[in-house]
Amino acid sequence: MFYWLTELSDKFTVFNVFRYITFRTGGAVMTALVFVFLFGGPIIDHLRLKQGKGQPIRTDGPQSHLVTKKGTPTMGGLMILSGLLVSTLLWANPANPYVWIVLGVTLSFGLIGFYDDYLKVTKQTHAGFAGRTRLLAEFVVAVAACVLLAYLGKPPTSTSLVFPFFKDLAFNLGYAFFVFGAFVIVGAGNAVNLTDGLDGLAIVPVMIAAATFGLISYLVGNALFAEYLQIHYVAGTGELAVLCGALIGAGLGFLWFNAPPASIFMGDTGSLSLGGLLGAVAVAVKHEIVLAIVGGLFVLEAVSVIVQVVSFKLTGKRVFKMAPIHHHYEQLGWTEPQIVIRFWIVAVVLALAGLASLKLR
């Protein structure tokens, strides 16, 4: 919305500032942050009143959670999504299709997660609705997004898998790109979902990844920077930096309420949507492999669950004391703050490694 003020720049040169993605990204961060600060408390009070007993706690999880986290409301993702949506609509260029595609994935995944949270709260079970049905819905949304992203891009890059650390190494996947891209988006959404198990554990790595991909989006969408760094230029994707900025601001606001002991959990409403956003941005800017590096913490959490399940089914033995892996460290005696802060440190290191891929070619 504010981008339209650039039309008045001929008469009032001060409005020229709204042309700059960097300025509008900063505005998006602050707007989302203030929005969540102002409305976070009332949203939590409303959710606590509606949910009563709050999010059901897994009986097969750490026993301490049955005491420390019982009664805490969920669906805090509504706070994040509200701040993100308002801020994006105010500061992003409304004519940019990449913004609408990524926003569509984010809100669709948020709706799927909301329905899952709703079933958990109303039925007081941690099962939610059928996993296969949920995955199918996610894949439908993700495939549709990948088709649109490929249509917007320039062939053959639009359907290619680009490898980091190499100047021109890319492999054209053709129609298989739709499946691959959908796997990235769905995988990112569910990996963040698995990570969301301790107060503040998921939201900070999400913000770190959003900051990283906000910078990558800006560079990939700028022809001069893309040529200098020898990365593939994708026109229009620079605007996604504004959306990533909105996520950072909303995430900071949410962290104020989610810091231990948490007043609210983000729930599937937040974790699925934020992971889906990161996955969609990575596909749009052709940095899917870099997402696996930057979001390596999420990958580790997801892999730990897969390894645990496969090992138990094949051998009857568990590799970890409990999965996802953050619960394994809880069982080893690490305190919750120790796990959370150390995982944040890992997320920062992985983000730096991902950024290094932009220059090491």
Give a structural overview.
The protein has one domain (22-290, 349-356). It is 65% helix and 2% strand. The protein has 14 helices and two strands, in the order H-H-H-H-H-E-E-H-H-H-H-H-H-H-H-H. It has helices spanning 21-51, 65-68, 77-91, 97-123, 131-152, 176-195, 203-220, 223-229, 240-258, 267-284, 288-294, 296-315, 325-331, 336-356; strands at 160-162, 170-172. A hairpin with a 7-residue loop joins strand 1 and strand 2 (170-172). Helix 3 runs antiparallel to helix 9 (240-258) and helix 7 (203-220) runs parallel beside helix 10.
Which descriptors would you attach to this protein?
single chain, 361 residues, mainly alpha, 2 strands
- How would you state the average pLDDT, rounded? 89
Number of helices: 14
User: What is the distance, rounded to the nearest whole angstrom, between the alpha carbons of the first and last residues?
Assistant: 38 Å
User: Uncertain runs with pLDDT below 50, 5 residues or more?
Assistant: none
Strand content: under 5%
Briefly note the structural class of the backbone.
mainly alpha
- As for the number of domains, it is 1
- Biggest β-sheet strands, sense, barrel: 2 strands, antiparallel
Task: Count the beta strands.
Answer: 2
Radius of gyration: 20 Å
3D shape: globular
DSSP helix fraction: 55-70%
Q: How are helices and strands ordered from N to C?
A: HHHHHEEHHHHHHHHH
- Biggest sheet: strands side by side, in what order? 1-2
